[in-house]
Specification:
UspA; 5 helices; Rossmann fold; 41% helix; Rossmann-like_a/b/a_fold; alpha/beta; five-stranded parallel β-sheet; Universal stress protein family protein; 143 residues
Length: 143
Protein backbone atom coordinates (compact mmCIF):
# COMPACT_ATOMS: atom_id res chain seq x y z
CA UNK A 1 0.00 0.00 0.00
CA UNK A 2 1.29 3.46 -0.90
CA UNK A 3 1.80 5.87 1.95
CA UNK A 4 -0.29 9.01 1.93
CA UNK A 5 1.59 12.09 0.76
CA UNK A 6 1.24 15.34 2.68
CA UNK A 7 2.15 18.76 1.30
CA UNK A 8 2.98 21.42 3.90
CA UNK A 9 3.42 24.93 2.45
CA UNK A 10 5.32 27.20 4.86
CA UNK A 11 6.44 30.81 4.69
CA UNK A 12 8.96 30.68 7.52
CA UNK A 13 6.76 32.43 10.07
CA UNK A 14 6.29 30.88 13.49
CA UNK A 15 2.60 30.55 12.59
CA UNK A 16 3.31 28.49 9.46
CA UNK A 17 5.54 26.15 11.47
CA UNK A 18 2.44 25.09 13.48
CA UNK A 19 1.52 22.93 10.48
CA UNK A 20 4.60 20.79 11.08
CA UNK A 21 3.72 20.23 14.73
CA UNK A 22 0.13 19.42 13.76
CA UNK A 23 1.26 16.76 11.27
CA UNK A 24 3.57 15.21 13.88
CA UNK A 25 0.68 15.08 16.36
CA UNK A 26 -1.82 13.53 13.92
CA UNK A 27 0.26 11.19 11.75
CA UNK A 28 2.61 8.57 13.26
CA UNK A 29 6.20 8.31 12.00
CA UNK A 30 6.42 6.09 8.94
CA UNK A 31 2.73 6.50 8.05
CA UNK A 32 3.16 9.42 5.63
CA UNK A 33 5.61 10.96 3.18
CA UNK A 34 5.97 14.73 3.53
CA UNK A 35 6.83 17.49 1.08
CA UNK A 36 7.56 20.84 2.72
CA UNK A 37 7.22 23.70 0.28
CA UNK A 38 8.19 27.38 0.29
CA UNK A 39 7.02 29.74 -2.45
CA UNK A 40 8.46 33.20 -2.98
CA UNK A 41 6.27 35.60 -4.89
CA UNK A 42 8.36 37.67 -7.26
CA UNK A 43 7.65 41.38 -7.50
CA UNK A 44 8.51 42.99 -10.81
CA UNK A 45 9.93 46.52 -10.68
CA UNK A 46 9.67 48.18 -14.09
CA UNK A 47 9.39 44.63 -15.48
CA UNK A 48 12.81 43.75 -14.07
CA UNK A 49 13.67 41.16 -11.50
CA UNK A 50 16.86 41.98 -9.65
CA UNK A 51 19.26 39.00 -9.71
CA UNK A 52 20.48 39.69 -6.15
CA UNK A 53 16.88 39.61 -4.93
CA UNK A 54 16.42 36.18 -6.53
CA UNK A 55 19.61 34.81 -4.97
CA UNK A 56 18.65 36.19 -1.54
CA UNK A 57 15.11 34.79 -1.82
CA UNK A 58 16.46 31.36 -2.80
CA UNK A 59 18.89 31.33 0.12
CA UNK A 60 16.20 32.41 2.57
CA UNK A 61 13.81 29.80 1.17
CA UNK A 62 16.48 27.12 1.52
CA UNK A 63 17.12 28.14 5.15
CA UNK A 64 13.38 28.05 5.93
CA UNK A 65 13.02 24.60 4.36
CA UNK A 66 16.10 23.20 6.11
CA UNK A 67 14.80 24.39 9.50
CA UNK A 68 11.43 22.78 8.76
CA UNK A 69 13.05 19.54 7.57
CA UNK A 70 15.04 19.39 10.80
CA UNK A 71 11.78 19.64 12.80
CA UNK A 72 10.45 16.69 10.77
CA UNK A 73 13.66 14.61 10.88
CA UNK A 74 11.82 11.46 12.06
CA UNK A 75 9.68 11.51 8.88
CA UNK A 76 10.48 10.82 5.22
CA UNK A 77 10.66 14.43 4.06
CA UNK A 78 11.43 16.27 0.83
CA UNK A 79 11.70 20.02 0.41
CA UNK A 80 10.67 22.11 -2.57
CA UNK A 81 11.25 25.80 -3.33
CA UNK A 82 9.51 27.73 -6.10
CA UNK A 83 9.01 31.24 -7.39
CA UNK A 84 5.47 32.24 -8.37
CA UNK A 85 2.04 32.88 -6.92
CA UNK A 86 1.80 30.70 -3.80
CA UNK A 87 -1.69 29.26 -4.42
CA UNK A 88 -0.86 28.39 -8.06
CA UNK A 89 2.41 26.72 -7.10
CA UNK A 90 0.79 24.77 -4.22
CA UNK A 91 -1.99 23.47 -6.49
CA UNK A 92 0.51 22.59 -9.23
CA UNK A 93 2.78 20.69 -6.81
CA UNK A 94 -0.19 18.87 -5.25
CA UNK A 95 -1.23 17.61 -8.72
CA UNK A 96 2.33 16.67 -9.79
CA UNK A 97 3.01 14.69 -6.61
CA UNK A 98 -0.45 13.12 -6.25
CA UNK A 99 -0.80 14.70 -2.79
CA UNK A 100 -3.50 13.29 -0.49
CA UNK A 101 -3.56 16.11 2.08
CA UNK A 102 -2.41 19.73 2.08
CA UNK A 103 -1.83 21.10 5.60
CA UNK A 104 -1.85 24.90 5.97
CA UNK A 105 -2.06 27.37 8.85
CA UNK A 106 -4.68 30.08 9.26
CA UNK A 107 -3.67 33.69 8.64
CA UNK A 108 -3.47 36.14 11.53
CA UNK A 109 -4.85 39.01 9.44
CA UNK A 110 -8.34 40.47 9.99
CA UNK A 111 -11.38 40.26 7.72
CA UNK A 112 -13.31 37.37 6.19
CA UNK A 113 -10.82 36.23 3.52
CA UNK A 114 -7.96 37.15 5.83
CA UNK A 115 -9.42 34.89 8.52
CA UNK A 116 -7.83 31.85 6.91
CA UNK A 117 -5.73 33.75 4.36
CA UNK A 118 -6.26 34.51 0.71
CA UNK A 119 -3.72 31.87 -0.38
CA UNK A 120 -5.46 29.27 1.79
CA UNK A 121 -8.90 30.26 0.46
CA UNK A 122 -7.61 29.93 -3.10
CA UNK A 123 -6.07 26.52 -2.36
CA UNK A 124 -9.25 25.26 -0.64
CA UNK A 125 -11.34 26.29 -3.66
CA UNK A 126 -9.05 24.65 -6.22
CA UNK A 127 -7.52 21.61 -4.51
CA UNK A 128 -8.56 18.12 -5.60
CA UNK A 129 -7.47 16.66 -2.26
CA UNK A 130 -8.13 17.18 1.45
CA UNK A 131 -6.99 20.56 2.81
CA UNK A 132 -6.50 20.72 6.58
CA UNK A 133 -6.32 24.18 8.15
CA UNK A 134 -4.42 24.43 11.43
CA UNK A 135 -5.52 27.11 13.91
CA UNK A 136 -2.96 29.80 14.89
CA UNK A 137 -3.21 28.81 18.52
CA UNK A 138 -2.72 25.08 17.93
CA UNK A 139 -0.77 23.57 20.80
CA UNK A 140 0.37 20.01 21.19
CA UNK A 141 -1.46 18.01 23.81
CA UNK A 142 0.73 16.03 26.17
CA UNK A 143 -0.30 12.40 26.23
Amino acid sequence: MNKRKILIPIDGSERSMHSLEFVKEIFPKGSVDIIIMNVKELVLINEMIVADEIKLAQELGKDILEAAKEKMKDYKTETYFAFGYPADEIIKKAKEENIGIIVMTKSTKKGLTRMIGSVTVNVVKRAKCIVMIVPNDFTISIR
